[in-house]
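Entries read sequence, tokenised fold; example below:

***
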Amino acid sequence: MKPKMNRRDLLDNDNIWNTIITVISECDLSSKDTVLNEAFIVFQYYSELESGGHETLLNWIESYIDEISIDIYLNKLISTLEKIGAQDYAMIEKRYGQELWRLYVALENEIEEEDEFYNVIKKADDEYHKLNGILENLLKAYFVSIHTDLIDVVED
């Protein structure tokens, strides 16, 4: 069931942004709601990359990837990034996603590939940061476009 919000509480994009983040933070990745699941995946990608880069993302998403596979996760992430107009970010994940996961798992299994892992992490993170935060603006626009799919807006 979607949460209800008064229209007066959603008067500008910042209010919508904050509300959608709240809705997303109260769900989990197993949500059957496609729009909510896409918003969750792309927002967590943004949050984890802003706070600590690809290594932080992999630490956070590890159990979900183990559950569904790296291929399914990357397909969901990349298709959602493309859907919101973040093709440059999608290209980074196409270029590095599989390799990062392979190296991450190797490190977890104590196979000596630490230098290679951190070299690939650095490349992927550098490419992400060269885009100068464009993703936040794309996410805001996306959240505005989907907010009525995720919350019931009640007229005052």
About this structure: Strands lie at 4-6, 152-154.
